[in-house]
Specification:
The chain has 150 residues and is α+β, with helices and mostly antiparallel strands. It contains 7 helices and 4 strands. It starts with a helix and ends with a helix. Bound molecules: zinc ion (ZN).
Length: 150
């Protein structure tokens, strides 16, 4: 979810105003989307349409990577390597953003240990590497290596 979306949703929830120049249809879809969000002390939460547990909306890409990295470690900061499924559950327990599932998958695939776990699972489908996919691999890999136990 883009920062602009979050601004639009926040503005509508707090003041009932729409972004300038949007069409009737866009207004309708914005109103609809607002049902999935609530604002508490100026912070936006996503609870879906079924009023599930509220989860913090994260719009900053760097913050997302930091969250994924944190959720991939235990309380002592050691990598847990639980693979996609467990990491996804942990992350989505607290946070929400558009494409969060894909981001968890991508993150776990870049971790050598977690991707080995993934290979062991025959249910997984393989996706082609795109040119963009190495964007975060450097810093994340470096973090793993600095944590390695010998
Ligand atoms: Zn891992």
């Amino acid at each position: 979810m883009d920062h602009e979306d979050i601004v639009a949703i926040t503005e509508y929830i707090t003041k009932g105003v729409y972004p300038r120049g949007i069409s009737k249809g866009e207004k309708r879809s914005l109103r609809k989307r607002c049902h999935s969000f609530s604002l508490k002390n100026g912070v936006l939460y996503h609870h879906g349409n079924k009023h599930k547990k509220q989860r913090l909306v994260v719009s900053d890409p760097q913050e997302r990577v930091r969250i994924l990295d944190t959720m991939h470690r235990d309380s002592d900061g050691r990598p847990t390597h639980n693979g996609i499924k467990f990491t996804h559950r942990k992350v989505t327990d607290w946070y929400w953003w558009r494409g969060i599932t894909e981001d968890v998958k991508t993150f776990c695939k870049r971790c050598p240990e977690c991707s080995q776990l993934a290979v062991a699972n025959p249910n997984r489908h393989s996706e082609p590497e795109d040119s963009d996919s190495n964007r975060y691999s450097m810093p994340i890999q470096m973090m793993y290596y600095s944590d390695m136990r010998y």
